[in-house]
Every structure is written in structure tokens, then in C-alpha cells.
Design goal:
CATH class: Alpha Beta
Number of helices: 10
Structural class: alpha/beta
Number of strands: 7
CATH topology: Rossmann fold
Strand order of the largest sheet: 3-2-1-4-5-6-7
Largest sheet: 7 strands, parallel
Helix content: 40-55%
Low-confidence stretches: none
Shape: globular
Length: 268
């Protein structure tokens, strides 16, 4: 089946949809005939993305909420099911990064990063999963990072939260594949988004800088295309990036070289 036909009349829920990869995915799925539930903690940003879909904006439904507050997620999911009757695809794109050494990162900041990247993601996933099981169909994706496969300087909580997602999504797949539920981890390297700009410093404030590596990354539009292609191929790990992805192979097959390289890289 052509990708242009695969998503017609499907309901796709995307978090982190007000910018970056999430925003690009909204445009791609709408273009392919899907109904999109667009979520983030930026209502104005969501409305902008919706408006930029032009004539197809009717296919975009803005549902803002904050991943750091999971208290109302069950109700939000029930409201969407009442409207759309199903969720075919859930793309957990929203998250936050970090730029702080371990010794200068207070524990409350570790918890905040985990609340957004891990607990926010699994809370939404746990709320959506029963409805997919009822339909015996669905595909759930979560965004990790190449530093979700190894440690990296200034990203201790970020790296740990993303590594936790790998374990969760892989278990989700193994438990539910017999019910026709697919699960994938998206592993971006350098993508030209504002993730480094919004990364949290030791005080929990925005880093406020676009890392050099980030500035040279693939464009969000290209990342969205790679993700959708990976979904169509039912890949359990979808790699997004350029030459930096080789770090994954170096870490696996030549760990001593990985540590030598990682020690010299300032940003990723």
C-alpha cells in the first residue's frame, strides 16, 4: 500500500506538535488524509500549526496539555475517544532536554525531566492502549535519542529518561504484538529543532542556545519523512539523522573508541 493511502481516515495523535519534528509530522499526516490530534503545552503554537495547514486545517484538532502533569490524561483520552471513536497511531514526540553536569543538577530537576520525558509519555500511552486493544489494532511510538542508547555529557537525566523509554516500549511490543499492537522507538541524532534552546540548565531555566551540532542537523521535514517511512516498514527502531548515527554502532562494537570520541564532543 502506498503511504499516501495508508493513513487515509486514520486518527493520529501527536504530542510535541507545536514545533520541530511534531509540527512537521502534523503537516505530513494531514497531507496524507489523516485526522490529527495535535498536542503540546503551547496552545498558541498548536493553533499556528493548524492554521498553516490551510484548507486541510479542519483535519487538525488542537488538544493542549502539559506532559509534566499526568493527572488529567485519562479524561483527555476519553474525550478524544468520544469524538473520534479510535486512535490508530500515537506518536509521543514531546519532551525536554538538558544541559547540566550531574554534580550541579538538583534532584528536583532530574524528577522534572523524568516527569515530562518518561512518565508523561507512558501515562498517555497507558491511557490510549486499552482502546487500541479493544480494536485489536494500533501503533504506538515514543521518541528517544541516540543518547538514549548511551550516556553523554550534560545530559544525565535526559539520557536516563530516554533509556527508560526503550525498556518500556520494547516491553509494550512484546506484550501486545499478539493483539496486533505495534510499538516503535524513534531515535533521532541531530535534528534542526529548538530542543537545545529549550533544554534545562542547572537552575531549570532554558539553555537559550542552539547547539552547533543541532544547527547542522537534518530538517524536521526530513525527519518526519524518515519516521513515516519507518512506520510503514513496521520498524521497531527508527533512526533519524546523519553521520552521527554511527556513534550507535561504535558504542556497541567498539566501546573504548566511543568513550574517547564522546569525551571530546561538546554537543550532539
Amino acid at each position: 500500500m502506498k503511504k499516501e493511502n495508508h493513513f487515509i481516515n486514520k486518527v493520529v495523535w501527536i504530542t510535541g506538535a507545536s514545533s520541530g519534528i511534531g509540527e512537521a509530522l502534523v503537516h505530513e499526516f494531514v497531507r496524507m488524509g489523516a485526522t490529527v490530534i495535535a498536542s503540546s503545552n503551547d496552545p498558541a503554537g498548536l493553533e499556528r500549526v493548524k492554521a498553516e495547514c490551510g484548507d486541510s486545517s479542519i483535519m487538525v484538532h488542537c488538544v493542549p496539555f502539559d506532559l509534566s502533569d499526568t493527572s488529567g490524561i485519562d479524561k483527555i483520552v476519553e474525550q478524544q475517544i468520544a469524538i473520534f471513536e479510535k486512535i490508530d497511531f500515537l506518536l509521543n514526540i514531546g519532551g525536554i532536554s538538558q544541559r547540566a553536569r550531574i554534580d550541579e543538577t538538583p534532584l528536583w530537576l532530574d524528577r522534572k525531566i523524568f516527569e515530562i520525558n518518561y512518565f508523561g509519555t507512558i501515562a498517555l500511552t497507558k491511557a490510549v492502549l486499552p482502546f487500541m486493544l479493544r480494536k485489536q489494532s494500533g501503533h504506538i511510538l515514543a521518541t528517544s535519542s541516540i543518547s538514549g542508547r548511551f550516556g553523554f555529557p550534560l545530559r544525565s537525566a535526559y539520557s536516563a529518561s530516554k533509556q527508560a523509554l526503550h525498556g518500556f516500549i520494547e516491553t509494550l511490543y512484546l506484550e501486545n504484538k499478539k493483539f496486533n499492537i505495534k510499538a516503535s522507538v524513534i531515535i533521532p541524532g541531530r535534528v534542526k529543532t529548538l530542543i537545545s534552546f529549550h533544554a534545562l540548565d542547572p537552575e531549570g531555566k532554558e539553555h537559550g542556545k542552539l547547539d552547533d551540532g543541532q544547527a547542522k542537523g537534518v530538517l524536521p521535514q526530513r525527519a518526519a519523512e524518515i519516521i513515516i517511512r519507518g512506520m510503514l516498514k513496521n520498524k521497531r527502531e527508527i533512526l533519524v539523522g546523519k553521520s552521527e548515527l554511527i556513534m550507535l554502532h561504535i558504542r556497541r562494537y567498539c566501546p573504548w573508541l566511543f568513550f574517547r570520541i564522546a569525551d571530546k564532543i561538546k554537543s550532539m
